[in-house]
Every structure is written in C-alpha cells, then in structure tokens.
Write a structure and sequence with these properties.
Blueprint: H1 2-19, H2 25-40, H3 45-80, E1 87-93, H4 95-102, E2 114-120, E3 128-132, E4 135-139
Membrane topology: Multi-pass membrane protein
Keywords: Membrane, Transmembrane, Transmembrane helix, Transport
Pfam family, one: PHO4
C-alpha cells in the first residue's frame, strides 16, 4: 500500500510538472491515499475522520494560534524594551569559529557561534551577508 501511494503521488506530480500544470504534493498524496483506499475497498469512515481529517483541520488552527501568541509576546517585548524602527538586530558569525569549521571536512558553518547586538541603524551596514550551510547569502 505505501509503495502504491508513493508511486501514484509521484506519477501525478511528474505528469503535472511535465504538462506545466500547477501541482501540490499534498493534494497528490491525499489523492493517492484516497485512490489506494478506494481500490482496496477498505475505507473506514470513522477512522478516516479521527486519524486523517481531524489533523488536517486542527493543525492550521493550532499553528495560527501559536503564531498569534508568539507575535503578541514579541510585540510586547519590543514595546517593553522601547525599541524603535531605526534599531537594527545585527547577527555576525564569529570569524575564528567559522574558519575553523570550514577547514574540517563534512562540517558546515551551522556550528559557528553567532553574536547578536542591537545597535543604531546608522552605525550598521546597509546590507546583510552571512554564511548559511556553507553558502554565502545576502546582499550589500
């Protein structure tokens, strides 16, 4: 059953991509699960509601609630510390640690120590550049 579901979803995604159609892997997997269940003839509506549909409905609601709570806490802390729009949070890698990690095979800069400071915007750089997983990202 898992091989049939994975194969059906993969073929759906490949075909839609090849035809230039918009595709959602989540919808492809759900379609493959429903198709596999229908072809097997063993759909249990009670289990389908509690083990499949309920998490699909509850997960976005929980995620939205958590995001709203974190936003409220962040906004409170921002106002409590009396930060203003011209303040800047600058995160810079520790160059010694980053260089040491770069010399070790199989190690990225993920373990490099970061230094975070809140400073005035006029004293900070306009752009942002930092190593992420061994790649240089950002702009100047």
């Amino acid at each position: 059953f898992p091989v049939a579901v994975a194969g059906g979803a993969a073929l759906t995604v490949l075909l839609a991509t090849r035809l230039g159609l918009p595709i959602s892997t989540t919808h492809a997997l759900i379609g493959a699960l429903v198709g596999g269940g229908l072809s097997a003839g063993s759909i249990d509506a009670a289990r389908l509601g509690t083990a499949f549909a309920l998490p699909l409905v509850v997960s976005p609601l929980l995620a939205t609630s958590l995001a709203a709570a974190l936003y409220t806490i962040g906004r409170f802390l921002w106002r409590h510390w009396q930060l203003e729009a011209d303040d800047c949070l600058c995160i810079e890698p520790n160059p010694e640690v980053a260089a040491e990690l770069a010399l070790q095979p199989g190690r990225g800069s993920a373990g490099a120590a970061r230094v975070a400071t809140i400073t005035e915007q006029n004293t900070s750089q306009r752009g942002f550049r930092a190593p992420v997983a061994g790649l240089r990202v950002g702009s100047e």
